[in-house]
Write a structure and sequence with these properties.
Helix content: 25-40%
Largest sheet: 4 strands, mixed
Radius of gyration: 21 Å
Number of strands: 23
Number of helices: 12
Strand content: 25-35%
């Protein structure tokens, strides 16, 4: 599907509510599925990723009933026979969170997915499974595990995706014995680890830091059902926040000020760029202000990368984004994808490894003759939509349906901000 996005004649301005946090929703669904009894989860967005986690929970250990923006997840207190592959769609979180959980079932479990999911590296788990003489086989067709995970001393690199650490955190408390995770520094994406631990605490499961790089997980624990409301998503809020910083007139609602989300860094980044905004009872209100480039460390907030590349083009001077290596192994190579599409619009930027340098060039940007490519990547599509509105360009983007992965109603949500959207194909 192609989507053509441009500013409405009245310009940019309006109010938007951040969608529910996809990261926290994954965690709440899995904790409730591992509990025995019914948990009520409120403020859910049924994106493809969250739907994949709900479906997997229903296949492994829970009964799931959904409403308009909520779900009742009734954990069965035991694992079901797994007679078919578990479809994770394109969700890396679903896959990596569930692999250790599947290894508690005592069964052979095969995972399948779409897009680039089965190409994404799982070497952290592969090494741990080999050390415990457990089956771990990955190919382009799927990933199979078999054998029972053991309580143990685990050592893994702290600069890999925190999804591996969170996956172990979900499973290890259910083993009889205690376990320890030794994280080899530097530990990146620490905020995502803390989000997992916070969700677990709500469901009655504890872990504790013995030092800044060592997590102790007592065994013999049980998840307890609870009622849980998912907070607003800072990673998705970054898209209208960047638009508001550039154009002003945007009010952003639905975000928690005391969040653990690492992507809340978007507000500090915008402030350092010179953005003018204030927090009111109505939400975060953005006013137009001159913006300048800054140095950005993406180690703890990699999902912000694509929209920050757009921001860099619209700032005066140079923006440098560091520690962005993980962007290359997402739904697309997000660095290469954004470079290609932004250059097609007159953008000036270059990258080397995980460092991206963006040169402010707002006055040189233009709409290309051909549609931009969305690379089947939700964050690429949404970032290009922000470029259209922030720079005043009429842009056509293919693969626009990719937004279903995380924010299905994105295009409808931006219309009250002054966006006109037309669909084709």
């Amino acid at each position: 599907m192609n989507a053509t996005i441009k500013r409405a004649p009245g310009g940019i301005g309006g109010t938007i509510t951040a969608p529910p946090s996809k990261s926290m929703a994954h965690r709440a669904v899995l904790c409730s599925a591992l509990a025995e009894g019914a948990s009520h989860i409120e403020n859910l967005e049924f994106s493809k990723d969250i739907s994949a986690t709900l479906s997997a929970a229903g296949q492994l250990c829970a009964k799931v009933r959904t409403g308009a923006d909520r779900a009742v997840v009734e954990g069965l207190g035991s694992f079901l026979p797994v007679s078919a592959p578990v479809d994770c769609c394109e969700s890396g979180s679903t896959l990596r969170f569930l692999i250790p959980i599947a290894s508690l079932t005592g069964q052979k479990v095969t995972f399948v997915g779409r897009g680039r999911l089965m190409e994404r590296p799982q070497t952290v788990y592969e090494k741990l499974y080999q050390e415990q003489s457990l089956r771990f086989e990955q190919s382009s067709a799927g990933l199979t595990v078999e054998g029972t995970l053991k309580s143990s001393e685990y050592e893994l690199a702290g600069n890999v995706s925190s999804q591996f650490i969170s996956g172990l955190l979900f499973a290890l408390p259910l083993l009889a014995g205690d376990s320890t995770l030794h994280l080899i520094p530097p530990v990146e994406s620490r905020s995502y680890i803390e989000m997992t631990r916070a969700a677990q605490r709500r469901f009655g499961v504890e872990s504790r830091w013995q030092d800044e790089n060592t997590l102790f997980i007592p065994g013999g624990q049980k998840y307890r059902p609870c009622d849980y409301t998912v907070e607003g998503d800072y990673s998705q809020a970054a898209f209208p926040a960047v638009l508001g910083a550039v154009q002003g007139g945007v009010t952003l609602k639905g975000l928690s000020a005391d969040t653990l989300q690492g992507d809340a860094a978007i507000l500090d980044i915008l402030r350092r760029c010179g953005a003018s905004f204030r927090t009111t009872d109505a939400g975060i209100v953005f006013e137009k202000a001159p913006l300048h480039g800054v140095d950005i460390d993406l180690a703890d907030c990699p999902d912000l990368g694509p929209v920050l590349m757009v921001l860099g083009l619209l700032c005066e001077g140079t923006t440098t984004i560091r520690n962005a290596e993980r962007l290359r192994i997402k739904e697309s190579d997000r660095i290469a994808a954004m470079e290609a599409e932004l250059r097609a619009c007159g953008g000036v930027l270059e990258s080397e490894g995980g460092t991206i340098t963006i040169h402010g060039c707002a006055d040189r940007l233009h709409a290309p003759a051909a549609p931009l490519h969305g690379h089947n990547d939700h964050r690429v599509v949404m970032s290009l939509a922000v470029l259209a509105l922030a720079a005043g360009l009429e842009l056509s983007i293919d693969d626009a349906e990719a937004v279903q992965k995380s924010w299905p109603h994105f295009f409808e949500a931006i219309k009250p901000l002054g966006a006109e959207v037309e669909y084709a194909g």
